[in-house]
Amino acid sequence: xxxxxxxxxxxxxxxxxxxxxxxxxxxxxxxxxxxxxxxxxxxxxxxxxxxxxxxxxxxxxxxxxxxxxxxxxxxxxxxxxxxxxxxxxxxxxxxxxxxxxxxxxxxxxxxxxxxxxxxxxxxxxxxxxxxxxxxxxxxxxxxxxxxxxxxxxxxxxxxxxxxxxxxxxxxxxxxxxxxxxxxxxxxxxxxxxxxxxxxxxxxxxxxxxxxxxxxxxxxxxxxxxxxxxxxxxxxxxxxxxxxxxxxxxxxxxxxxxxxxxxxxxxxxxxxxxxxxxxxxxxxxxxxxxxxxx
Length: 293
Prior knowledge:
70% helix
């Protein structure tokens, strides 16, 4: 039997797409649900993301072990629901206070040595629902500002574009790993291709469905920052899984693992957009994204 050559002179293995079929099917289903909630707007939209946040807090508390896991999850989910109700009515400050109280209680219920981690999980899931509620409050369709809907479309384009093209770029180009101690599969090439592609996808969405003049350069730069935030969110979640020695946060989504595995980049990018609106002092987070003078 002839042994395949090894070492630096060995031919490079082709890209591995063995998991692509299941990933594509799951991604299409999730995209359809997300777009359906986006089109529905109002309460269905915010409840869709609340359900995602509750799933995230369940997965996070599951990572920490079985000790008082059910009460940790119940209190964390309750804090998310109440915080969401206030955030949806422009009460983000009260929502943050509720999350803080919930995080303290959940942390107190955590096992010794893991209490901070238990509390952080509430804030992590809360970052998703608060950001979404700030960017697109559940207002009736007739009075919803036009920027709100487009800001979520922009987020989808940037995060999905970054995620998809980072996957293909990394496998087709390969090269040095970005941070092998945290994410064994993520490469510099995939990260750069993903961020640039996500920024261009966001710019395309803004151009196709403009509310006003498109500020190309600022929006391109914000898109690059949003794509970088999405990749940073991916790395953060990978570091959490590495800390607790698990491959996936759960098995809820075939081909993708858990809800946290699917939304890690979206959480970071949505938080970035919400904070951008606050820092810029815009009337809304969505206007802070699109309006540049």
